[in-house]
Write a structure and sequence with these properties.
There is one protein chain. By secondary structure, the protein is mostly helical. It is 68% helix and 0% strand. The chain has twelve helices and no strands. The radius of gyration is 23 Å and the shape is flat.
Length: 359
């Protein structure tokens, strides 16, 4: 079919070339992979108690780590001034300090890499007209949120430099949640650019189910609760399952006064809430799989397979959570559990996208 030059020009300028869509989509999946790596490294940084090893925020100069013995001694001396060193790590050797320093430096450096890996290709895609109408502002939104995440990260670290030996669980929850929001947003944009299924293969539902969106929303709630468990070291209390040391409801669930602080400052309640929401997510994922299987004449095969993948992901994550709890949160399992949470969120976002397309 002949295409006029005017249509051609508009197609190129508006980012309607399928080849460009494919390139932008692959770039977004690469960014999603980097964000997943960032979440994983962030978990390792927290579990190794490395997050306070760098006591300054230097967005440009901080890219360069200490290079000489004198610079290493200066970095260690700065760390010696904070409560974590004085109350927990007093007498730490330079070699031990380097271990925690490199984790935190790597976490910050990876954040800078992600920023460049997002901003520079975005400029190129924008310049050559590879972006679909409306997507430029969406990508700028992701970029802005990524920049804000850097500020939030330093805001979190600052909370542990004075009067504390660790970071505030409130700020940790904010930092982790924003990371998951960025991952979900990038995954959604990448899925939007995927080649649509042929119209003939689409099966249309009269009323799209709201359950996939509910599952995504509750997964975000679970991320917040998980951050409170991590920040309060709630995984180190009641390392039994399915009971909590023989009780379904532990006696010290409301041990803190005033009562409304318990969900946020009582490690027992933090773990209890995290368990309950995990059970709720499992039940909702099972209901969603049942819904798609029961409605095969209305739900697409892709939606059913997606629901099955979601159910499998939830079961794996629950098993990892139980294993991590029973083992009293060893570093390796803790890292895997946090990374698997990010993967599960991506699966849930994909399922929501598939369900919306099937509607």
């Amino acid at each position: 079919m002949a295409v006029s030059s005017t249509t051609k020009d508009h197609g190129s300028a508006a980012g309607l070339n399928p080849g460009w869509d494919q390139a932008v989509m692959l770039w977004l999946w690469a960014i999603a992979g980097l964000v997943l790596a960032m979440i994983t490294v962030g978990g390792a940084t927290r579990l190794t108690d490395s997050g306070l090893s760098i006591t300054e925020w230097q967005p440009i100069l901080g890219t360069i780590p200490p290079l000489t013995e004198a610079q290493w001694q200066e970095a260690l001396e700065k760390y010696r001034q904070i409560p974590q060193y004085q109350l927990i790590n007093k007498g730490m050797s330079l070699e031990d300090f380097k271990f925690i320093f490199w984790w935190e430096w790597g976490h910050r450096f990876l954040g800078r890499i992600i920023g460049l890996a997002f901003a520079l290709p975005l400029l190129v895609f924008w310049f050559v007209g590879a972006l679909k109408p409306g997507y430029g502002l969406k990508f700028l939104g992701v970029l802005a949120l990524g920049g804000l995440q850097g500020v939030i990260g330093w805001y979190m670290v600052k909370s542990g430099l004075v009067d504390r030996v660790d970071v505030s669980q409130y700020r940790l929850a904010l930092h982790l949640t924003v990371a998951f929001v960025i991952l979900a947003w990038v995954v959604w944009l990448a899925l939007d650019l995927a080649k649509p299924r042929p119209a003939a293969a689409a099966q249309h539902l009269a009323v799209p189910s709201r359950l996939p969106a509910v599952i995504v929303a509750i997964l975000f709630v679970q991320v917040v609760l998980g951050a409170f468990v991590a920040g309060l070291k709630g995984g180190l209390v009641y390392n039994t399952w399915p009971s909590m040391n023989g009780a379904l409801v532990p006696y010290d669930l409301w041990a803190i006064e005033p009562w409304y602080l318990n969900p946020f400052e009582n490690p027992v309640m933090a773990q209890f809430n995290h368990r309950l929401v995990a059970y709720a997510i499992t039940a909702l994922a099972a209901v969603e799989l049942w819904r798609t299987l029961r409605s095969r004449e209305r739900a697409s095969l892709a939606e059913t397979r997606s629901a099955a993948l979601l159910m499998a992901g939830v079961l794996v994550q629950v098993a990892l959570g139980i294993w991590t709890l029973l083992a009293a949160v060893p570093i390796g399992l803790g890292i895997v559990h946090q990374a698997a949470a990010a993967v599960l969120l991506a699966i849930a976002v994909r399922h929501l996208h598939v369900a919306r397309r099937s509607a």
